[in-house]
Design brief:
Blueprint: H1 15-59, H2 61-113, H3 117-141, H4 149-178, H5 181-184, H6 190-203, H7 218-222, H8 243-257, H9 261-287, H10 294-326
Length: about 325
Amino acid sequence: PTKFSQHQPYQTVSVDALEKAQAHLEKAIKHLWPVLQHNLDRQESRKKRQKEQNMAAHTSLRFTIETESASSDSEEEKSEKPSMENEAVATQLYGTHQKLVNVYLRLAETHLKNYFSSSAMQCLRSAARRLADSMFLINQAHEPKCADNRVYLWVRRCQQQYVSLWEHCGHFARSFGGDSLWRDRGHARADDVLSVLRDAEAAFEHNQEQYSFLQTDPFCSLTGGQVNLYQLSGVVRRTSGTSASLNAIQIARKCLSEQHLLRREEREVLVASCLAYQRAIFAHRLLVENECDEDKSMLMSLLLQRLGDACNEVGKILLNTLRSVLG
């Protein structure tokens, strides 16, 4: 449904083949993830045990030198082996997750064309969770502050998929707000669409401090956090406003909350689409900040155009509401 599709993988692959690939990739993750988790638990227990030994050694100085001299070589060998195992398993898991996210996004695009709301929502949720797992795996395969070029490439791939994910979410929300067939054929409600976007946002909460493109987008910053996926009135107080303006905002929100259900849902999902597009733009701007790529510049233009169209639709709804109140 979007021009982004020409830039995404697996465009020539059929839906049946994608679903089979999804099943195989999920099966591979199911087998590999417990191995990584076991190594991490074993490494954590070894660190804890070593810490306890060091604390015990400090209480008796005569055992400190003996402990360090006798076990230094063996401890280095033991700590090095799990680290190498973690890197190998995490690398395999990262590649599997990246392929699976691309499959989910391609399937979501197909389901959105056919108004398969349940399947589309499931794919978007799964893509967000697997992408968040990919970011976790980067830290397991490399040192936290490693400057390796491979880490840079891995983060960029995650960033590109993050842009595509929120572009799909924005398109889903905007399409729902302007197309009644989502209710008739897709049997979807506005709460379902908003729930998908909120779940996608929640999937990256634990990674926000490590990756700059996951930080709060300008929309939330400019509105002081008053416009987010949980507050979608579309009416905010200016930072320089007075108590009178705050009262006016409360009256406006009350008026909007008393609207007909379908009209209220239309406005909320359109505001949510603006937030989704803004997050995609924010992440994409960081992606092309130091590059000159014509294709990426075109994608940025498309995102800005979609954000502008969604904002115009929200503005028309609010203007029509104002006219009905004054009339």
